[in-house]
Each structure stands twice: as structure tokens, then as C-alpha cells.
Amino acid sequence: MGRWLEHTVTTEVQAPAAKVWEVWSDLEAMPRWMRWIESVKPLEDPDLTDWTLAAQGFRFSWKARITQRVEAQQLHWQSVGGLPTKGAVRFYPEADDRTVVKLSVAYELPRVLAPLMEPSILGGIVTKELQANLDRFRDLVEAGG
């Protein structure tokens, strides 16, 4: 067992929650805006996806199950194999044309990385990357994505 790390980032999107939800829900398109995600492939079960992350010379794969889905409000997931991960994305309508998106991601630091990197340093890198990803997502939605 490794150590669990958790990160939360937020951005404001100039679009209605339904549009933000629609773009987020296209999981296969996530590599367009989530830089470390190499691929997301849907499986036969509509709540199950196969993920591959490639970053800094490391590659990790896992399957994730959607554990809660409330359209245009929130989506929760948890891994069911591979890299232990869980998280949630929530959509908060601030106005008819503005939505706050809050992304929380938790993962177990793989043992192979533990001796190579201080968790607090890795945490800072991951938080910055998640914020950059969420900002790219915002830009994609606002560009009509």
C-alpha cells in the first residue's frame, strides 16, 4: 500500500451547466485537454472505462467505474483495477451562462514513485497540471468545444 494524495482545482466557465456537462461527458475526448491522459476507452458496461496515463516516463492503466452521475451537476468515479484512484467533478451554475467546475482527484502514490519523489513535491506538480488541464477544458468549452 502506498500513500493517498488528493487534489482539488476549480475554474469558471462562461457557458451554461448543460453545455459544460455535455463536453465533460465525452470521456473519449479527454486527452484533447487533459495532457497526461493518453486514452480513455469506453467498455461494454456504460459506467466502465479503461484509462491510460503517460507522464514523466511512467505509464499507468486502470479501469474506472462511474459511481454517481447526476446530469449537469456531478460525476463521481473510482478505479476498479490498476492505479488506485477516485474523484468527482461538480458543476455549479452561477448564472444562465456561467458555471463553476470543481474537480477533486485522489490516487494512491505508486510504490515505484515513492522513493523517487517527495509526495509534497509530486502533489504540487499534480495540482498545477490538474489546474492547467481544467483551464484547457474551460477554453475548449468557451471556444464551442
Describe, in plain words, how this protein is organized in 3D.
There is one protein chain. The chain is of the alpha+beta class and 145 residues long. 23% of the residues lie in helices and 47% in strands. The model has no long low-confidence stretch (mean pLDDT 90).
How is the topology of this model organized?
Elements: E1 4-13, H1 17-25, E2 37-42, E3 48-55, E4 58-70, E5 74-82, E6 85-95, E7 98-108, H2 119-142
Antiparallel strand pairs: 1-7, 2-3, 3-4, 4-5, 5-6, 6-7
Strand content: over 45%
- Indicate the percent of residues in helices: 10-25%
- Overall number of strands: 7
Count up the helices.
2
Describe the sheet with the most strands: 7 strands, antiparallel
Q: Give me the Rg, rounded.
A: 15 Å
Unreliable spans are none
- What is the multimeric organization of the chains shown? single chain
Q: What overall geometry do the principal axes of the alpha carbons give? A: globular
Distance between the termini: 39 Å
Order of SSEs: EHEEEEEEH
Find the structural class using helix and strand composition: alpha+beta
**What does the average pLDDT come to?**
90
Q: Give the strand line-up of the largest sheet.
A: 1-7-6-5-4-3-2
